[in-house]
Amino acid sequence: MTARDRMRLRTEPDHFGLVLLLLVTTYVLFVLGDGVVVRLAVGAMYLVALVIAVRASAPGPRLRRFVQVVVVGAAVAIVVAEVALPREAAAGVTDCALAVVLISTLVCILDRLLVAREVTLRLIAGALSAYLIVGMMFANFFGIIAWLQPGPFFVSDQAPDAEALQYFSFVTLTTLGYGDLTATGNAGRGLAALEALVGQVFLATLIARMVSSFRRKERDVTPSEEAEDRT
């Protein structure tokens, strides 16, 4: 058994359920508003989710050091941007910082899920967390494009605030296609198409595979094994 395997045994059971809870809470916060306090709270929850994901996935030393830099750098960037920069610039810098945090969290979770030998409910919670992270991450990408792109981001002249961008991202990710919000530029449209593709591949491969493996494991448990588990 390698040192990495021993570390993972010490950190198990995987606490991805807590990561999922934090992500759902941040989603609700973004629905409720887009003020400075909300953005700071969301940034703090993303950072906590990243720390928990690292503890649960036990990545290698290089990735762990990189995550430490990300946590400190993102926290400083978000606070300075929200306190010192104008509204539009602060939103853009915060989107950049949050995108890096979410990408790091996604890498840590996938690093654990792809090497797991046994599928558990907590690992399925990790897969669902990764799916939510994809939607939130693309919302930040859209925010960065809206910050850098001249002219309106949406065809309808809807303000590209956090609520609208998150709504647009998850509608795209789930391929609902309401059509009420549409990106104006090629960058936004291309990124939206990429998100829809990533979302479908993610559902059809990782989550579907993990759920089917978990169900197959439950069917393979014999009555005698169930009795031993109860004792």
UniProtKB/TrEMBL annotation:
Transmembrane regions: 12-30, 36-54, 66-85, 97-115, 127-148, 191-211
InterPro entries associated with the record: K_chnl_dom
Top-level taxon of origin: Bacteria
Keyword vocabulary terms for this entry: Ion channel, Ion transport, Membrane, Transmembrane, Transmembrane helix, Transport
Pfam families: Ion_trans_2
Annotated GO biological process: monoatomic ion transmembrane transport
Keyword Transmembrane helix: yes
Protein name listed in UniProt: Potassium channel family protein
